[in-house]
Write a structure and sequence with these properties.
alpha/beta; Rossmann fold; 2 domains; 6-stranded parallel β-sheet; 19% strand; globular
């Protein structure tokens, strides 16, 4: 009999938009498990107390924005990958009560990027928007691509520089200036093979980090936010003829990897994708 948590949660703020409960419920059903998975909106100031309540209940789960880095700091133990990334999106409690954090976003992004780019990941120049926990997972994945480099642009340059310092020789930083021609930002975008949005822009269904017309025709686009039927920004990019995909492939893969951490059995990715498509 497969052992594992009988209750799973997703911690985020906001979190009502998440498709993870549908996806993980499908994975649980496909595996014949009766555990329940639900989204819990947790304000940042309540995060530590919430984790203590979950510790008492031995509840495992996932973490989304804006808590990934904060949960990493609160864990009793991190997997080597989570320690390197400095962010946690998957957690569980050991029998002795220790809170363990892991990061399956790295594997999720790597899968999604290879799905979009194929063999082009080797040596790829990547333009990355954002410097939070999801951006750190992108940097870690690209770090494993032979000869690839990342250029980060974030509204808070100090955060981008702190992230870049962890990947010397692989990650550079430019000022976030999507509307100004002739800048280091526009030069980095012009040579990029892949543009990744790791900011919350797009969650509202209206914002766009960069206008599709400003993206080179040779550049593929990945939005780590997602919606059923793709985000409006990705729809606009695809309408322009760009190779573009939102965060659904990454969502499914990171969720499947998390499921396998909790239960030690393969996740039914077809069922998971079907539940959210």
């Amino acid at each position: 009999m497969t052992m594992g948590p009988t209750r799973l949660v997703l911690l985020g703020h906001p979190v009502a938009h998440s498709l993870s409960p549908l996806m993980q419920t499908a994975a649980l059903a496909a595996a014949g498990l009766t555990a329940q998975y639900r989204a819990v909106d947790v304000a940042p100031e309540d995060l530590a107390d919430t984790l203590e309540l979950l510790r008492a209940e031995r509840t495992a789960g996932n973490v989304t924005v804006p808590h990934k880095e904060h949960v990493a700091a609160l864990c009793d133990m991190l997997t080597p990958l989570a320690m390197t990334v400095g962010a946690v999106n998957t957690f569980w409690f050991e029998p002795d009560g220790r809170l363990v954090g892991d990061n399956t976003d790295v594997g999720g992004f790597d899968f999604a990027a290879r799905f979009l780019l194929g063999d082009q990941v080797a040596g790829a120049p990547v333009m990355l928007l954002g410097a939070g926990g999801s951006a750190a997972a992108v940097c870690e994945a690209v770090h494993g691509w032979e000869g690839a480099r990342v250029t980060i642009a974030a509204r808070t340059r100090s955060r981008a520089e702190a992230l870049a310092a962890r990947y010397p020789g692989v990650v550079d930083v430019v000022d976030y200036a999507p509307d100004i021609p002739g800048t280091a930002f526009s030069a980095a975008l012009a040579r990029a093979v892949l543009l990744v949005n790791a900011t919350p822009l797009g969650l509202d269904g209206a914002s766009a980090p960069i206008l599709p017309d400003d993206i080179p025709a040779t550049c593929a686009v990945m939005d780590l936010t997602y919606r059923r039927g793709r985000t409006p920004w990705i729809k606009a990019c695809r309408a322009r003829g760009l190779r573009a995909e939102d965060g659904l492939p990454m969502l499914v893969e990171q969720g499947a990897l998390a499921f396998e951490r909790w239960y030690g059995v393969p996740a039914d990715r077809v069922a998971m994708l079907g539940a959210i498509r």
